[in-house]
Every structure is written in structure tokens, then in C-alpha cells.
Amino acid sequence: MRIENLTKKYKNHMKEQTIFSKTSFDFKDYNSIALCGRSGSGKSTLLSILAGIDIDYVGDYFWGEEYLEKTRKDMANIRLKNISLISQDFCLLYDRSVYENLAFPLKLFGMKKKEISENIIDILKLLELDDLINEYPAKLSGGEKQRIAIARSLIIKPEYIFADEPTSELDELTEKKVLEIFKKYQQEGTKFLIATHSKEVANSCEVIYNIQNYKILMNK
Ligand code: ADP
Ligand code: MG
User: Fold this and answer.
1) How much distance in Å is there from the Cα of 86 to the middle of ligand 1?
2) How far apart are the first and last CA of the chain?
3) 41 CB less than 6 Å from ligand 1?
4) pLDDT digit string (tens) for 166-179?
5) CA 119 to CA 170: how far, in whole Å?
């Protein structure tokens, strides 16, 4: 996917804040891209634009060669089928168990009960969270919630995963394990765009993009 001529501003109480100014972003054929930049530079904003959640910008969005109208329906279709976002605040369902949180996206895709349960057990084992299968998110630590959110993205094996500071709550060893799991999924075809402050995470990606002076630039 790519976006050309991107300009994005937020309007707060009569004040206008520029985030991006006539810049572009192209995923190209990379398997993994790190998105770096100071806090407040626009990383989360770019992820929600690319994921089709934020359509309030100027710019042209292309999916392959296809130009996408910025209507909610077009973008929601693309997103549902191809992109999974791990957001900074996890967006877990707090009145549902871990199992139900993970089952939710699979049910949407019409997967059978038995297969859902097998997939959930596998992904929880992979992330060393299998003890938590019947817990509720409110009872979990920040790092556990973060890994449940990661599991919920991985479980649907989307074409793209956009991860917003996905290891911010994790210790070094757990971060390393999560990066190894991301690598495994990359080998199976999932592409990652990861907003991060972590050097380890950035260096584990094929390329690093930086947000600076309202532009998205590739690190040389
Ligand atoms: P980052 O993820 O790099 O820390 P963000 O994309 O979250 O940056 O935010 C970029 C800037 O836009 C920040 O100054 C933030 O306060 C502002 N901002 C983010 N979301 C909104 C919003 N919904 N309305 C107004 N301003 C926003
Ligand atoms: Mg952010």
C-alpha cells in the first residue's frame, strides 16, 4: 500500500496543528518497517490513517495499483480483510475473558468452534500466556494485556499488522521473544509496520522510517 501527498492537521479549539505536510509513505515489498520519531511526531496518527480508521486527511491512498476513495465503507472493507492494528491502548473487551477476546475476530471470519479453540490454545502457548485463558483483562498486568492484544492480531494471520509500540510494556527478554515470533510470522507472509522507541525493535526490521519535520523519511 502507499499514500501520496499526505497532509494531516488536527484542529483543537480553533488551533491548528500540522502533523504531516505533503509527504508520502510506500510500504513497497518490505516484510517489516520500523516507524520511529519523537513522542507526538505522528506515529499513531500514521498507523490509523494507513489502517483506514482516520480518513480525515488530504492525500491519495493506493492499495496496489487501486486508488481508494476515502469513504468509511471502502476503507473498512480493506482493513477488515487485510490489516490488523495493535493499538497503544490494546482495545481489549474488558467484560470478556481472554478466550473470548481471541475468539471474537475468528468468529467474524466464520471459523468453526473446534478450530477456534485450537488456534487460541496454540497462540497462547506461543506467547507463554496459556495460564491466562480464562482470566479477564482487568486482572492482567500491562505486559500481559499487551501480549493478549498481540495474540489477537497474530491469530487472524492478516496480510499486514500495524503495531503501535507493541513492546512498550515488556521486559527485554519478553520483547526478544515477541520479535522472534514476529519474524516467524514474516516468514509466513505477514508484513509488519511497527511504531517503536525501542532500538532492538527498530533494528530487527528491514528498514527504518523516521517522522521528522512533518515528513516520513527513510533512514539511510
Ligand atoms: P505519536 O504516536 O508519535 O506519539 P500521535 O500521532 O499520537 O503521535 O500524535 C501526534 C500529535 O497529534 C500529538 O501532538 C497529539 O497531541 C496530536 N493528536 C493526536 N490525536 C489527536 C486527536 N484525535 N485530536 C487532536 N490532536 C491529536
Ligand atoms: Mg503513539
Assistant:
1) 17
2) 21
3) yes
4) 999 999 999 999 99
5) 23
The 3-state DSSP class for residue 120 equals helix
Is the minimum distance from the CB of 210 to ligand 1 under 6 angstroms? no
| Closest residue by CA, ligand 1 atom 6 | 42
Q: Residue 86: exposed, middle, or buried by beta-carbon count in 10 A (0-12, 13-18, 19+)? A: buried
Q: Which residues contact 2 (CB under 8 A, 6 or more apart)?
A: 24, 25, 26, 27, 28, 61, 62
Question: Rounded distance, CA 146 to CA 189, Å?
Answer: 23
Q: Produce one character per residue of 154-183: b if its CB has 16 or more CB atoms within 10 Å, e if not.
A: bbbebebbbbbbbbbbbeeebbebbbebbe
Grid cell of 140 as nine digits: 492482567
Q: Which atom of ligand 1 is nearest to the CA of 45?
A: 6
- Amino acid sitting at position 9: K
Give the position of cell 479549539.
13
What is the pairing mode between strands 58-63 and 2-12? antiparallel
> pLDDT tier at 215 (50, 70, 90 boundaries)?
very high
**Residue 84 Cβ < 6 Å to ligand 1:** no
Residue whose CA is closest, atom 15 of ligand 1?
40
Joined grid coordinates for residue 150: 498481540
Report CA(211)–ligand 1 centroid distance (Å).
13
Supply the pTM of this predicted model.
0.95
| Cα 78 to Cα 130: distance, rounded to the nearest angstrom | 31
**By percentage, how much of the chain surpasses pLDDT 90?**
87
